[in-house]
Amino acid sequence: MDSGDKASKYKGQGSSLLLVLVNALCFSLLQAEPIRVLVTGAAGQIAYSLLYSIAKGDVFGKDQPIILVLLDIPPMLPVLDGVVMELQDCALPLLREVIPTDKVEVGFKDLDAAILVGSMPRKEGMERKDLLKANVAIFKTQGAALDKYAKKTVKVLVVGNPANTNCLIASKSAPSIPKENFSCLTRLDHNRASSQVAMRCGVSSDKVKNVIIWGNHSSTQYPDVHHAKVNVHGSEMAAYDAIKDDAWLRGDFISTVQLRGAAVIKARKLSSAMSAAKAICDHMRDIWFGTKEGEFISMGVYAGGNSYGIPEDLIYSFPVQIKNKTWKVVDGLSINDFSRAKMDATAAELVEERDTALDFLSQ
């Protein structure tokens, strides 16, 4: 082999090496930066059902690395250590780090998303005002921590009950974060309503769209199917036409959805966990990736500027559509007298909750 052939050989190897290096650099640049996701009440049963789905990419995307921050109270830290071990043992490629903590300055630092599951549960003999007072203290602290430590773009989902009012307190305690970044979970109620309609029609739940949960995540909520559609044998029709039982839709259907949480507790001796975790995933995935064209879902959001006559300084569940991580209340839906009365009743409960909570907040 002469010197020219040797030069040609090494030149070819150099080009191949350069190509490999360029490809490696491009691949590293394409790798998304990890996002920081906080779950509070992380040693509890809802979180136990939730964390795996987040860590394996079901919520924020199959190519989105995650740093999971797990916050709970000091007595729960030993349990949290077990949760961390299990997450490690799942060997999930997207899960870059798990940070267990009981300190807000660690838990709320540089967050992209916060899922506030932990709250004071109602105990036997506890009046509602006592429950509100305990939770005002919790969500005032967490709102202030969001304000001080989290990114201003953080998306905050409040799950812990009373979810609507807890969400309002957290938002008021974080004045530098837009109110629109806060929402509370009524997707579980939405999913319950969709499932009841689907079972009644003998179709799968993905054949039902545009049910609405109005108002509070409580027994006063109003599950509304006046605008819902059901796909039966390839033909889309109004839910009322598909079901053909107005008495059921205005009676047992509503009470079944309103009281479903209590029914689960009576049967399981524990509150909803698997279904709540699924609803949290649905809610956050829709915030991140948007709702389907022509469809809306239910979320508790700030009522400012709504077109439905709902008092503005509330977190109230509306039908919303989401695009570019921004929700918009679906306007212009016709509201009959039956619906109006239900919507106003749940709003009245929220006003009473808000006023009680704000009294505690000012103390």
UniProtKB/TrEMBL annotation:
Where is NAD(+) bound in this sequence? D72, N135, V159, G160, N161
Q: What is this protein called?
A: Malate dehydrogenase
- GO BP terms: malate metabolic process; tricarboxylic acid cycle
Domain Lactate/malate dehydrogenase N-terminal spans what residues?
36-182
Residues where substrate binds: R122, R128, N161, R192
The record's function comment reads: Catalyzes the reduction of aromatic alpha-keto acids in the presence of NADH. Plays essential roles in the malate-aspartate shuttle and the tricarboxylic acid cycle, important in mitochondrial NADH supply for oxidative phosphorylation. Catalyzes the reduction of 2-oxoglutarate to 2-hydroxyglutarate, leading to elevated reactive oxygen species (ROS).
Q: Its catalytic activity?
A: (S)-malate + NAD(+) = oxaloacetate + NADH + H(+); (S)-2-hydroxyglutarate + NAD(+) = 2-oxoglutarate + NADH + H(+)
Q: Which PROSITE patterns match?
A: MDH
Q: What is its EC number?
A: 1.1.1.37
Alphabetically sorted, this entry's keywords are: NAD, Oxidoreductase, Signal, Tricarboxylic acid cycle
Lactate/malate dehydrogenase C-terminal domain: residues covered:
186-360
Originating species: Echeneis naucrates (Live sharksucker)
Question: Which residue positions does the secretion signal occupy?
Answer: 1-32
Q: Which family does it belong to?
A: Belongs to the LDH/MDH superfamily. MDH type 2 family.
Q: Which GO terms describe its molecular function?
A: L-malate dehydrogenase (NAD+) activity
Q: Which Pfam families match?
A: Ldh_1_C (PF02866), Ldh_1_N (PF00056)
Domain of life assignment: Eukaryota
Quote the CDD domains the UniProt record gives.
MDH_cytoplasmic_cytosolic
Tell me the active site. H217 (proton acceptor)
